Structure prediction request, 426 residues.
Amino acid sequence: MTEPTPADPVFSGSFTQQEPIPEAAIERAVAVMRSGRLHRYNTVADEVSETALLEREFADLLGVRYCLACASGGYAMQLALRAHGVASGDPVLTNAFTLSPVPGAIAAVGGRPVLVETGPELTIDLDDLDAKIADTGARLLLLSHMRGHITDMDRLGRLLAHHGVALIEDCAHTMGAAWNHRPSGSFGVAACFSTQTYKHINSGEGGLLTTDDGDLMARAVVLSGSYMFHDRHLAGPAPVAYGDVSLDTANMSGRMDDLRAAILRPQLAQLAINAERWNARYRAVTETLDGVPGLRLPHRPAAERFVGSSIQFLCEGLDPADAQALLARCRRRGVELKWFGAAAPAGYTSRHDHWRYLGSQPLPATDRILAGLFDMRLPLTFSVEDCRTIAQIIARSLAEILAAQPANDRTLGDAPSARTVDGAGG
Prediction:
């Protein structure tokens, strides 16, 4: 491979560098540390903990009745599944295209993950979901809005209602997003959010569980390790909901602490502004990549309001050697891509056949998509112009690979790019 020439665009930013924690959050966190009372139930007199305030503020933002802050997004999913009543061996449907904590949460509570094929726009294949509900008798779908791509929630709702299947949403990538103006996370019996560093608000680790079901939330609060402090949950159900729950439900400690909640509350107030900032960067990349030969951008329906903190594109038909070459060319020019077609997991990127504890689940449609699927973070530390430069590097690197292919192998390069309908921020 030749070195980049001086005329080549080269990028020097970091794809893992997040913006600093806001000063207001730092001041609030320092106050918590000075108090020495970091545990959410370690309050004095009529003091309300930072964690309880965060729960109330997040529930209000989402428009739901109840919210519980916990140790991680993965733990929030485990709480939701247990509190919903998943028992050992129960089949639980979920996307084949997701990240490992999603099937991991199902396995952690003793459930049996049943993977559903992925459609061409990176969302769950609703026809395959229909078939697998009938085949398995599953009565619960843990839906991952993977990388922020939201399926047709109206059609999904009708399908699940027809079969009597409940929905829990994994909204790790859709905090602040919506479908037809209805917030992501408000469609099922419960929803789970993440506040891990690379998500839309950042406390290093953390999770939020939301629901309108008081009985489910009562069980989740006890599971999270509330002891007898139910009355300290501003976004929890009334005392009557607990009944004998504390006697019948295990304590599986996974609470959020006040330090992390203090860091998150000022960020939550900036979520809508930051969503617009992410979407400006997302548009800069898609506008540059749209129409590039050999590259297809997923279609974003007008009904979808997404938060573009990452971007995905497909090079369908690119063989593994050329896919690796694309990664290498981009990396030499400073652009860090992830590829879901790699034979072995790397970093945070893995796919269903790497999770051998699930057993063999043939997923040919998903495999075809993942073979050509590339993924990239868009941190807010990048400027809009940085994002245009990054897209130019991707386009140039792909063009070089296609130009090196024999003429009779250039069907990939002749394929049209699907235009993106930008629902971002709509």
Summary: The chain has two domains: 23-269, 271-414. The first helix runs from residue 23 to 35.
